[in-house]
Write a structure and sequence with these properties.
Blueprint lengths: L8 H16 L2 H8 L8 E4 L5 H10 L4 E5 L2 H10 L4 E4 L12 E7 L8 H10 L1 E12 L6 H14 L1 H8 L7 H9 L7 E5 L2 E4 L2 H10 L9 H14 L4 E2 L2 E5 L2 E7 L2
Parallel strand pairs: 1-2, 1-4, 2-3, 4-5
Antiparallel strand pairs: 5-10, 6-10, 7-9, 8-9
Helix pairs in contact: 1-4, 1-9, 2-3, 6-7, 6-10, 9-10
Length: 262
């Protein structure tokens, strides 16, 4: 499994329109609250994507107090269109282009799993955080605890093989708490506290779910139109248990990790 979680520019638009409300929007207020973001707090959002968490931070701290950093120019282009008042920067988590102690709060929502060097990324986030500041990271819990995606991964494996299925396994690579704690134990971050929080994925339909996962994710350039049609047809049968009146829902828990810098 070697997905870096990166998407194309077109996929970034789908990501914002469908993935954000379906999966990520409910987590931004939770992360911001746990991080104790207040008016005037200097905030860095690492791996900000299209900016759902940075926008929540800006609502609490003020847009001019927030920096959103991502390695993906397509994501940042969407983020800038939505909220031009935030300082959007291109950069890698492993080499943050900021002085030590520059921020009161550092947050990273569902990015840690994809960093090439997770320990170095945590060290960098810790470095740019001021003494007394807070670091909050969010990662998805285990695939086994996220039944919709467990079934989706199995469907992809059955139809297209393990390499394609593993692209969708990647977001859950730190879902085992012992694995997540081991990453933090190797880093400079002190006394991390891990809390597992229930969440719910919500899509309008199975068709929307499939379109979002394929067209708004790294599989956008790995499945051709014919394969996409096969998947869409098979998904209506294989994922029917998650269809309810009003749409598609399934449990989607996450681990939130909080640490305060001495």
């Amino acid at each position: 499994m070697d997905s870096d979680g990166q998407v194309t520019g077109d996929a970034a638009v789908v990501y914002e329109e469908f993935f954000v409300p379906a999966l990520f929007a409910e987590w931004a207020p939770r992360v911001a609250t746990l991080a104790r973001i207040a008016r005037g707090s200097r905030v860095l959002d690492v791996a900000c994507g299209t900016g759902v968490l940075a926008r929540e931070a800006a609502r609490l701290a003020g847009a001019g107090a927030v920096v959103g950093l991502d390695v993906n120019p397509g994501m940042l282009a969407v983020a800038r269109r939505i909220e031009p008042g935030i300082d959007w920067r291109t950069g890698r988590a492993e080499e943050l282009p900021f002085d030590s102690g520059s921020f009161d709060v550092v947050v990273s929502q569902f990015g840690l799993m994809f960093f090439a060097d997770q320990t170095r990324a945590l060290d960098e986030m810790w470095r740019v955080l001021r003494p007394g500041g807070t670091l909050v990271t969010a990662v998805w819990a285990r695939l086994e605890d996220t039944p919709g995606y467990a079934k989706m991964v199995e469907l992809l494996r059955r139809l297209f093989g393990s390499d394609i299925a593993d692209e969708l396994r990647a977001p859950f690579s730190l879902g085992e708490p012992s694995v997540l704690r081991a990453v933090f134990d190797k880093s400079a971050v002190t006394t991390p506290r891990v809390e597992t929080v229930a969440g719910t994925a919500r899509f309008a339909s199975i068709a929307d779910w499939v379109r979002t996962d394929i067209r708004g994710w790294t599989l956008a350039d790995k499945l051709d139109d014919d394969q996409f049609r096969v998947l869409a047809r098979e998904a209506e049968i294989a994922l029917a248990e998650f269809r309810h009146e009003g749409g598609v829902t399934f449990a989607s828990p996450a681990h939130l990790v909080l640490s305060t810098k001495p």
